[in-house]
Write a structure and sequence with these properties.
EC number: 2.7.11.1
Number of helices: 7
Strand order of the largest sheet: 1-2-3-5-4
Oligomer: single chain
Keywords: ATP-binding, Kinase, Nucleotide-binding, Serine/threonine-protein kinase, Transferase
Largest sheet: 5 strands, antiparallel
Catalytic activity: L-seryl-[protein] + ATP = O-phospho-L-seryl-[protein] + ADP + H(+); L-threonyl-[protein] + ATP = O-phospho-L-threonyl-[protein] + ADP + H(+)
Protein name: non-specific serine/threonine protein kinase
Distance between the termini: 36 Å
Structural class: alpha+beta
Shape: globular
Strand content: 15-25%
Number of strands: 8
Radius of gyration: 17 Å
Order of helices and strands: EEEHEEEHHEEHHHH
InterPro entries: Kinase-like_dom_sf (IPR011009), RIO_dom (IPR018934)
Length: about 220
């Protein structure tokens, strides 16, 4: 891949995300200095959460590597592939690997919290899954009841995508999980979700974090 100059992937009130060259290899750079002044504290906090999660997952396949975070600029490794809404993975093996990926992440004490968004799932060049965008990941506290609830929601969101692209492979247990969202998820759909969509559309100009793709209930 030849990237002579940084290529902007996304620019909004929360800053700018670029693909650039670093030590001869492509990397993803998140610059929070370019965020609007009123959104800069939020952008910095989101980047710090992503850095914390990637440190916790260091060495794990299927997630970017953290290359640097100085409070203003976050560098992470580039993973070649296509987002789920473009690749539309229909094979059973993709979802078997994705389940193992989630299990490894959860064992390391990280909950993603944003896996309803298809752009946060990547289909790599070899067909394997990868996870992106850890800005609202949960990395603190004990793995108690709340942690287990949030981890189950990560799983449920993966199963929603499986239901879309590979429904014939859903087991009876997986269908039962899909039919029983967590209480906070039901409350979110009934109350806060409409407000979130309104803010995302009117204030930030997009539906999901990447500005495209679908957000599933």
């Amino acid at each position: 891949m030849n990237i002579p100059e940084p290529t902007v992937l996304k620019a909004d009130e929360l800053g700018r995300i670029e693909i650039a060259m670093h030590d001869g290899v492509p990397v993803i750079r998140r610059d929070v200095r370019s965020a609007r002044w009123w959104a800069r504290p939020l952008a910095r906090r989101a980047a710090a959460r992503e850095a914390r999660a990637l440190r916790r997952l260091a060495g794990m396949a299927g997630v970017p590597r953290l290359l640097g975070w100085d409070g203003a600029e976050l560098l992470r490794s580039y993973l070649a592939g296509a987002p789920m809404q473009q690749a539309r993975p229909a094979g059973r093996d993709y979802y078997r690997q994705a389940l193992r990926l989630l299990a490894r992440m959860h064992r390391l004490g990280v909950v993603h919290n944003d896996l309803a968004k298809e752009p946060n799932w990547l289909v790599c060049e070899d067909g394997s899954p990868a996870l992106m965008d850890f800005q609202i990941a949960w990395t603190r506290g004990r793995r108690g009841a709340l942690y287990r609830i949030l981890a189950r929601e990560d799983l449920r969101h993966l199963l929603k995508h499986k239901r879309t692209y590979c429904p014939q492979a859903l087991s009876a247990r997986q269908r039962a999980i899909l039919d029983t969202p967590a209480p906070h998820s039901r409350l979110w759909r009934a109350t806060g979700k409409r407000l979130y969509k309104l803010i995302a559309r009117r204030l930030f100009g997009y539906w999901d974090n990447e500005g495209k793709g679908r957000v599933r209930d």
